[in-house]
Amino acid sequence: MVFGRPDRGIRPQTEPLTLKLLVAGGFGVGKTTLVGSVSEIRPLRTEELLTEAGRPVDDISGVEAKSTTTVAMDFGRITLREDLVLYLFGTPGQDRFWFLWDELAQGALGAIVLADTRRLADCFAAVDYFERRGIAFTLAVNCFDGAPRHSAEAIRDALDLDPDVPVVMCDARERDSVKRVLVSVVEHALATGITARRPATV
């Protein structure tokens, strides 16, 4: 800066746009893995060991190897562009922790509903939650090894999703795959918000 005037050619720094996204879905669907695979910081996790006492209420059929579970939330951060930062909040999957969802959903731009084709019904509750609250979401099918493969349209029909809800296939372990899901959520949420604000024509 010279005599109080900014030097030419030097762009003033601006704060990046920060957006909050939720990652939801059934028990053992891969929410913690998704947040961890894409976060540029060490993710915050609130995991506890599964115990014999929890077996009557935690259905682990299909995910028998799972040994821990999220009891509050997962948290991560990723910079998609120089001017766009996403904060990711993973929700707990078990019914008894759903009271936390309302707190986590405050201020969220949109959400990822993660699904497993072996236990597709487990994501019904998350789909219903976001539909009822008018929160835009993308359904991301986590393609587990050995899990049945179905087309996006077949999954859309099975879950009775609205035509405008994106359905994408992903691998929650792969950073690039998860980034494509995040881009889908942001684009869908922004488009939904623009449509909602557009005045009706007569």
TrEMBL record:
It comes from the Bacteria. CDD domains: Ras_like_GTPase. Keywords: GTP-binding, Hydrolase, Nucleotide-binding. It holds the Pfam family ATP_bind_1. The keyword Protease does not apply. PANTHER family: ATP/GTP-BINDING PROTEIN-RELATED, GLIDING MOTILITY PROTEIN MGLA. Belongs to the GPN-loop GTPase family. This is ATP/GTP-binding protein.
